[in-house]
Design goal:
The complex is a heterodimer of chains A (201) and B (58).
Chain A lengths: L12 H26 L2 H17 L10 H18 L4 H17 L6 H11 L2 H11 L5 H8 L3 H27 L5 H16 L1
Chain B lengths: L10 H25 L5 H16 L2
The chains are: A mainly alpha (201), B mainly alpha (58).
Chain lengths: 201, 58
Amino acid sequence: MGLDVRPPRVEDPARDAIFKRQLVALIPQLRAFARTLTGDATAADDLAQDAMMKAWDARASFEMGTNMKAWTFMILRNQFYSEKRRSWRQTQLDQEAAERTLVAIDDPAAPVALDELRLGLGMLPAEQREALILVGAGGFAYEEAADICGCAIGTVKSRVSRARRALQAILDRGDYDRDGKPAGDAMGAILAHAERLSDAR
Amino acid sequence: MIEKDATSRSPELDEARLRQQAIGSKLRQMFDEVVNEPVPDEFLDILRRADKSAMGDG
């Protein structure tokens, strides 16, 4: 064996194998991030696949042992915004999702809570939506989310808090728009679910 | 007329807190549902092809 001083950026199958294993383990997370960002399953998987391949192609620049989840999420996020600039079909898809949701809401027995939340997320400004998803669902600390989004921690904090308030307002307003009465079944169901969760703690 | 009970904690605040918890748990549920889906074969196929071309390098 002898001296094995490896310069960086050289073909390294063993390192690649480790990298690949870790990347594969992150695919479910990347899909979830993409799905919640775009609100559309097909577009989300396209995005997640693109991000996965970008991560693979950039593997030499990844510092092993650092946070690969945050690194891949950052790649996916950047990909999302660059695609949005290239006339992403998001707007059309959002409209379709909204129409589906409105139809669903007309049926008072339909379990609409998740659809409403999905619709509400789609109505948030993108930067608020991503901050809320990263911190509220992705399990990232504010500092990590700030790194991923390329902004200050305070900015992430204020985006998350604005997102929470806006989402609540949207969900409430949705109920008012629907039948002119406050606190419909959907919100009641969400609240009951939350109470059960906090009781279980 | 809205009744105001000055003796208790602010019910508006309690309700807002509860709603935020509810929204938060639904958001996690939405995310986790996707995480728990089986990964489509396509993902691994793409990566396998890329890996092969990296090994062979042309």
